[in-house]
C-alpha cells in the first residue's frame, strides 16, 4: 500500500481550483441519489496530481468510505496493460504485428466465419485472412463477447461457458482453443467488435515471453512502475480495502451485485486462466503510475518500458482506412462512444472532437472498465484523468462524457 497525495496546486499547472470543484459537486449527486455507491476522481497535469477527491462508500452495507487506497476491479482497463506488455515483447523482436496468431496458438490456424443459421446449426465458410496479432490489438479479429447477445455466435460463447470472463476449469490455452473452435463474426481486419481478443493476446504474451501472464505483467510492468497493489488476485490482508461490486437496477440505482459474495471470495485465488482483457485489481495510485508512464512516452522514474515512438504508434488510429468506430464497429457494446473516435493498439483514440461532441484534443487516448471505471491521457494538454467506482454495467450513466466536460472546463491557461 502506497500513499497517494495532491502534488501541485491547481493554478501551478493551469487549472482553476474553483472549477475543479464542479467535478465533485456533480458526481456527489450520483452518490446522494443512489446511482453510485462511491467514487474516486484524479486529475493530473504535467504528471502532478492537482485534484484528488473521494465520495461515498466502498461498501454500503458496512458503511465503509471510499479511500485513496481502495482497491477496485478495473475490468477492461486491464486491456491497455496487456497491450503494453505485448508491445514490449514486440520491441524485443519476439513477433511482428503481421504475424499470424496461429504461430503462437496453433488452434487459430483454420478459422471459420459465421454466414448464417442458428447457434445449434451455424453455417460457416473458411476465413479469407489469417488472424494476425494487430487484429487482436485493434479488436478487428472477428472474435466476440458472449454478453453482447446480438448474434448466434455470442450464444455459442455462452453455451461454452463464457458468459462473463473465462469458462470454469479451463486454463488460458484451453480458453483460446475453445474460442478458435467457434466461428468468427467476420474476416479479420474488416470490422470492429469488442471481444475476447485481448485475452487471446494475453496467451500470445505467455508464449512469446515464456512466462505465465501474471508473472510477466508483474516483473515487466508492475514492479518497475511500483504498482504494488495491482494483480489478478489479492492478499487476504487487503480484503477490507476491496470495494464491493454493485449492479444497476431498472431505475439505474446501485444495488449489491447478486454474485458479490462469490466474486469477493474469488478475488483471493489466483485464476486458472488470467484474463488479460479484464482480470486485474488495482488502485488509483497504481493506475496513475501506469498512465504517467504513457504520458511520458513509455518511461517513469528512470524505468523505461516502451520507446517513445512505440507509444506514439500505439496511440494513433489503426482502423483500416483511418475511419472512426462508428463507421467500422458492429452495433455492440464498447467502453467508448464511437463517433469521431478510432482505435489504436489497445486504446480508443480521439480523432475528431467535433464529431465526437466532446471537448478534448485530437490524439487523446483512453479506455474504461465494465464497472464504470475510466481513464484518459491527453498528450497535447499534458493531462491524465482517472475515475474509479464499482457499478455494472458502465453504460448505465454518462459518467465518462460528463467527466470530460467537467475536466476540460477547468483548464484555464
TrEMBL record:
InterPro entries in UniProt: Beta-lactam-related, Beta-lactam/transpept-like, Diverse_Enzym_Activities
Beta-lactamase-related domain sequence ranges: 23-404
Annotated transmembrane regions: none
Biased segments, Basic and acidic residues type: 258-267
Annotated region (Disordered), positions in chain: 252-275
Pfam families to which the protein is assigned, alphabetical: Beta-lactamase
Name of this chain's protein: Beta-lactamase family protein
